[in-house]
Amino acid sequence: MCLAIPMQVIEIDGLTARCEAKGVERRVSLFLMQHEPVGVGDMVLVHVGYAIQKMSESEARMSWQLLDEVLEASAVATEASVEPIEHA
Fold it and tell me: How many domains, in total, are found in the chain?
């Protein structure tokens, strides 16, 4: 399974951008986005360190809502599957 994360561009230096999502910053390559102008404030979808497409803020917000739901469901499932250790 592949996963791409919505991030906001906060700084651009050539074909490298500093992007932020939920307080986490990453250096992201804009090499694959040369066909489309990317500016500070834009939302991009990031996969393995590369911005692969621009997206609207509402698309990014919806994506994060879905990702948060998946993470929450995963945490609940993990908690339910962990059996307590009984000490003799």
Answer: 1
